[in-house]
Amino acid sequence: MGNYILKSDGSKETYSKTKVMNSLVSSGASPGLAEKIMRQISREIKDGMNTDEIYKRARELLRGEKPGLALRYSLKEAIMELGPDGFIFEKYIAKILKEYGYKTRVGEILKGCCVDHEVDVVAERDNIFLMIECKYHGSKGLRSDIKTALYVHSRFVDIEKAFKNENCDRDMHYEGWLVTNTKCTSDAIKYAGCVKFQIIAWKYPRTQNLQYYIESKKLYPVSILSTLTRNHKKILMDSDIITIQDLNNYTPGDLTGLLNTGHDQAIRIIDEIKILLD
Q1: What per-residue confidence (pLDDT) applies to 1?
Q2: DSSP-assigned letter for residue 223
């Protein structure tokens, strides 16, 4: 009988070597390196270990082999540092979509047929108009459920109807999206598929999920940088510097002034950014 581990929601499950392997490979580790780390973790696993302990150990082993991969392996936790509320996450999603060619606005009031709605992110490109609800969770184990899916879809339908009535001569394609940094329940996913609105979540869908949009253009949040203190991260995000791309052209002198830090620390920050963007 295999060892059992504790998931982030408190439930138990049998330790899975495959899940460890897949998580390492998805961060960019080669199959050979992923297997080497998985074997080491499997030798250390004990009943009752939680997923955070396993994750931290995997990250330590990755750091010893490939520092850049260790940083990317912490992406999920880095996004959870964008809190405590969801406003920075909304701005982060807007910045990501901007890099994919969309014109974006955050916190837009849109008129529906029945009532007005505040939409977290509005994105436009060519004849595509996206209305996006962002659901940010600051801890693991929390999922967006069927009530969230129903709420998001009903708002989208009301707005879409009003837009089509006012712009009946325009060849515009409207889409409602739910974007979350964790996962959705199976009922939420089933409902979204039935009414055909898009969910972008952690590891969902199988392709073009949240990781895809981030990794494809290396749009990592500044919170992924281990060389930054918590206060540094707050200073950057308060200054609307949310992705490492936003920092890419900063000099050590720029960073020492902005973060009130030493020159050597600024060099380490820049070196870490280069590792991620390489």
Answers
A1: 47
A2: G
Q: Measure Cα distances from 29 to 62, 115, 167 in Å.
A: 8, 49, 49
Place of tokens 């308060």: 238
Q: Which of 80, 71, 69 is nearest to 182 (CA)?
A: 80
8 A C-beta contact, residue 54 and residue 5:
yes
Neighbours of 77 (CB within 10 A): 15
> Cβ(221)–Cβ(202) under 8 Å?
no
**Is the backbone of residue 209 left (phi > 0), alpha (psi -120 to 50) or beta?**
beta
What pLDDT is recorded for position 2?
62
* 186-195 helix and 146-166 helix, angle to the nearest 10 degrees: 20
| Angle subtended by helix axes 263-277 and 252-259, to nearest 10 | 120
Quote the Cα angle for 77-81-88, to 5°: 125
- What class does CATH assign to 220-277? mainly alpha
Tell me how many helices (H) and strands (E) the chain has.
13, 9
Strand bridging mode 103-111 / 116-125: antiparallel
CA gap 176, 155 in Å, rounded: 9
Bridge partners, residue 179, by sequence: 134, 200
How wide is the angle at C-alpha 16 spanned by C-alphas 14 and 17, nearest 5°? Answer: 150
Please list, in sequence order, all residues whose beta carbon lies within 8 angstroms of the beta carbon of residue 59, skipping any fewer than 6 positions away.
70, 73, 74
Both structure tokens of 125? 């490109």
Q: What stretches in the chain show pLDDT beneath 50?
A: 1
What is the CA 58 to chain-centroid distance, rounded?
A: 20
Query: Alpha-carbon Rg of the chain, whole angstroms?
Result: 21
Fold of 104-215: Trna Endonuclease; Chain: A, domain 1 (3.40.1350)
Please state the domain extents for the chain.
4-73, 104-215, 220-277
Which helix (H) or strand (E) covers residue 123, if one does? strand 116-125
Here the tokens at position 168 are 């009946």
